[in-house]
Amino acid sequence: MSILLSFAPVLLFLAFLFLLDTFRLVRISTLALVLAWGILAAAAAYFLNNWLADSLQLGFKPLSRYVSPVVEELLKALIILYLVSRKKIGFMVDGAIYGFATGAGFSLLENILYLQGATPDYTLLTWFIRGFGTALMHGGCTALLALLLMGGMHRSGKMIAAMWPGLLIAFLLHSAYNHFPVNPMVQTLFIMILLPLVLMITFHLSERKFQQWLEIEFNSEIELVKMIRIGQFRSTKAGLYLVSLKNHFSPEMLVDLYCYISLYLELSIKAKRNLMLKENGFPVMAEKDLMPKLKELAAIRKKIGLMGESALAPLIRMNYKNLWKLNRLQDDTK
């Protein structure tokens, strides 16, 4: 029973979050990776916390309240920061799931260590608090860190600035939990009620925003591609803007800018098409020419340089969301 109470709640809650992901943004392989990292992070934290306790001559309370939260949240955050740097997380929904999975893996090994050191005075209540309180706390802190990180990336695209609010909140919440400001049972019940509520509201708002982004951009891009193919691009606002650049760039540069817009729109539409297929339970369409086109887009982007990208910013802004979209399309070709 102690094993069930320690492991089942966090794994069941992770499965619940995974099922909430209607757009199927989460990859099973990446989910397995973050779970594994959470386990490795717990092992590293175990040795690092013991070393710091011996080196700094710290007792259990100061260690658990002020040092361990920093060590453990930093270790858990590393995999989320890595995935964001590689454009593997696009929206708050998948960030929250990967964050919670990291914390779930961490809590699994931590509870195994507690089981090994269990004494007769460890009752079922102890394992209930470990499973429904501490384990969910670990998952919730990293999920919240990922949510705040993704919000910052969508606003600024700069990871250094975006990561600190989430890290700080995770440190403070973890430290507050380890202070046990109220009865541990009350604290556990509070987490059991509040965490699902916060994540469900966040999921609802994030997925609604994702749906709006998908539909609005998809329709406008389809219309632009249609105008390009029938030779009426110059009559659109985007075409008129591109024509207005002729006094600032050479004819060769203007051709490159036009090719960049045309190729980007084609790939962007295909990326959104794949997302819509996944949302409705269909497999993505395999196209052999996707990878060459992605490489061609990267080559043109390099050729036009920062000056060309800045000139096209009113039409195409290579922010984090758009880079993630193209990176996901590349993954779909594998």
Write the layout of secondary structure elements.
Blueprint: H1 2-20, H2 28-56, H3 60-85, H4 92-116, H5 124-155, H6 159-178, H7 184-229, H8 237-244, H9 251-279, H10 290-312, H11 320-332
Helix pairs in contact: 1-4, 1-5, 2-3, 2-4, 3-4, 3-5, 3-6, 4-5, 5-6, 5-7, 7-9, 9-10, 9-11
Structure description:
The protein is an all-alpha fold and about 325 residues long. It contains 11 helices and no strands. The chain has helices at about 1-20, 30-55, 60-85, 90-115, 125-155, 160-180, 185-230, 235-245, 250-280, 290-310, 320-330. It has 2 domains: about 1-205, no CATH class; about 230-330. Helix 4 runs antiparallel to helix 5.
Which percent bin holds the helix content?
over 70%
Order of helices and strands: HHHHHHHHHHH
Radius of gyration equals 24 Å
Number of strands: 0
Can you summarize the main beta sheet?
none
- The chain-level mean pLDDT equals 88
Query: Ends: how far apart?
Result: 43 Å
The number of helical runs is 11
Strand content range: under 5%
What ranges have pLDDT less than 50 throughout 5 or more consecutive residues? none
Structure classification:
mainly alpha
Shape: elongated
Number of domains: 2
